[in-house]
Amino acid sequence: MHDPGQSGAVGLPRQMEASNRADDFIPAGLASLGIEADEVELAVIGAAHELFWPAILDLYELDTGAVAPEPLPDLSRAPAIS
Amino acid sequence: MSALDLSLHEQAAAIASGETDPAALLEAALTRIEHRNPALNAVVATFPERSREMLAAAPAGPLRGVPVVIKDEWPLPWRAQRFGAAEMIGPAAAGESGPYRALRDAGAVLVGVGNMHELGASSTGNLSVYGAAHNPWDLERCPGGSSSGPAAAVAARLVAGAVGADGVGSIRFPAAYCGLTGLKPTFGRAAMDGHHMAGISTTIVAGPLCADAADARLLGSVLCGEELAAGEARGLRIGVVRDAVAEDVAPAVATACAAAIEALREQSGGEVLEIELPDLDAAALAAVLIANTEGLAGLSPSRLRRLDPELSPIARGLLKYRLLLPAAAGIKAQRVRTLMRRRLAALFEQVDVIAWPTVPAVAPPLAAPLVELPSGTLTADQANVRGAGLANLAGIPAISVPVGSSEGLPIGLQLQAAWGRDELLLDAAEALERATARRWVEALPPLAREAETAGA
Q1: I need a surface site. Which of A44, B69, B301, B417 has the fewest CB within 10 A?
Q2: pLDDT tens-digit profile of B335-385?
């Protein structure tokens, strides 16, 4: 049976805070793809991440589950309103 | 006055009537580019012999003999596009594109290729493999991107019309910064074949950058392959949004746009209606995410490991970051697209156009493209995309119209309409021109005024 308290027992915080710190995300992401980046590129990637990531987290929080999909949308025309 | 200083439709009419010799007009355009372009870097390639061949073969179309510039985003039979960069991710090859064919078949004469922001990746135009283009209103300011060169070329009256492309505001930003009328047609309405993202992009569309709405209508009709018929904007129902995002605008821009909206209301005998359009920030992000990931099929870690060293560190960094964007964000973005398309469809039952500032502040310095807004200092890109992304996300047409000036720099008002109502936007822009006695569409930047006085 799952015991929520177990997370603390293995050293994990019970509630993780979302982070937009490029230090956490960028090196791991680049390493997983086997891509190197020089100092200037890393600064650019970091700046982009700090700009995009909070907005992406907000996007994730937006509840779009109730939005019925628009199959094969024709972007030159209005959608059917439902 | 040189025939080059006539509007696009006046040049076409003068040639058709025999009043102007198109060969002389072409040579005058090439000479003017030689004189004025060094300060602007708006035109990155000319090809006088090709231009003369185009003129010799020009059919009796609506633009016969009229010089135009095309953005470095479109291939030509004699020149591959470079997309403002040392290296493109998509295929680049010389060939005929839809806009090229449309211009050729209309009798237009291509006199140059317009500069653009590297890889189309910014609203500023301050970075390009050719060096930045400069804003004719202030050479130290951004001309807007990514269609920087086409806008700067028209604003400085090197030509009266230019073809841009708009994936997330890339026609409207430079139109606003350079004091032009720039139309982003309904998605799919303008010729797109030959573009390296044709069939892939769901946001990009070709469109005109011109001094006024009549010229944008003429060039837009050519690009769309059908007449964008003129009508009267009567009884316009103008929707305005009043929320934290929509109102985070520099005071001078807010004042000029509010005055223009009121002038348009009065001119059309219409009404201004406050509308609700929530989640504009999410819509802007969704547009950026979609536009930045649709071209990823050609991107791979191995490709990223061998990028051209001449590509700027900014472009290299952003390309690498693109591969790190989570797929879930793309899925969410598509659902936001659906949500906003439905909201817009419902809104356009209540209003004819939605109006807000094209960009929230005037053109920032090339060296530091930051803007001061009530919420604080933002990068121009961060601020500009808020008002532009929606039209690309949803597919609706949008137009930027010059409506004022601050610090000697133009201010643009954006109007958006329902799918296929591009003509209404042009009608509304013309109504606005009448309401302001064409003050803003006839304003010339210092560079063009001084050169005119000097006879260049």
Answers
A1: B301
A2: 999 999 999 999 999 999 999 999 999 999 999 999 999 999 999 999 999
Start-end of H helices in B156-300: 172-178, 213-224, 251-268, 280-293
Phi, psi at residue B59, to the nearest 5°? -75, 170
Architecture of domain B3-289+318-454: Alpha-Beta Complex (3.90)
pLDDT, position B43: 98
Q: Which of B124, B130, B151, B277 has the alpha carbon at shortest distance from B210? A: B151
* A22: closest chain B residue by CA: B321
Per the CB < 8 A criterion, the answer to whether B269 and B393 are in contact is: no
B317 in A contact zone (CB under 8 Å): yes
Is B71 designated active site? yes
Residue B387 · residue B358 · CB < 8 Å: yes
pLDDT tens track for A2-57: 454 444 455 555 566 666 566 778 999 999 999 999 999 999 999 999 999 999 99
Sign for the pseudo-dihedral over CA of B21, B26, B27, B29 = positive
Catalytic annotation on B320? no
Q: Tell me whether residues B320 and A62 touch, CB distance under 8 A.
A: no
Count Cβ atoms below 10 Å from residue B265 Cβ, excluding itself. 19
State the nearest Cα–Cα gap between B330 and chain A, in angstroms.
10
- Min distance A53 CA to chain B CA atoms (Å): 9
Residue B247 exposure: Cα atoms within 13 Å on the Cβ side: 6
Mean pLDDT calculated for residue range B106-127: 98
Nearest 5°: phi and psi at B357? -60, 140
Q: In which region does residue A50 sit, left (phi positive, over 0), alpha (psi from -120 to 50) or beta (all else)?
A: alpha
Chain B neighbors of A26, CB-CB under 8 A: 324
pLDDT above 90: residue B137: yes
∠ CA B84-A47-B128, nearest 5°, is 10
ipTM of the complex as predicted: 0.91
Look at A62 and B313 and tell me if their CB atoms are within 8 Å. no
Cβ separation A41–B342 shorter than 8 A: no
Any idea what the Cα angle at residue A36 is, between residues A33 and A38, rounded to 5°? Answer: 150
pLDDT at B415 over 50: yes
Q: Where are the domains of chain B?
A: 3-289+318-454
- With CB atoms and an 8 Å threshold, state whether A41 touches B320: yes
Q: How many residues does chain B have?
A: 456
DSSP 3-state assignment of B436? coil
Q: How confident is the model at residue B20 (pLDDT cuts 50, 70, 90)?
A: very high
State the nearest Cα–Cα gap between B189 and chain A, in angstroms: 7
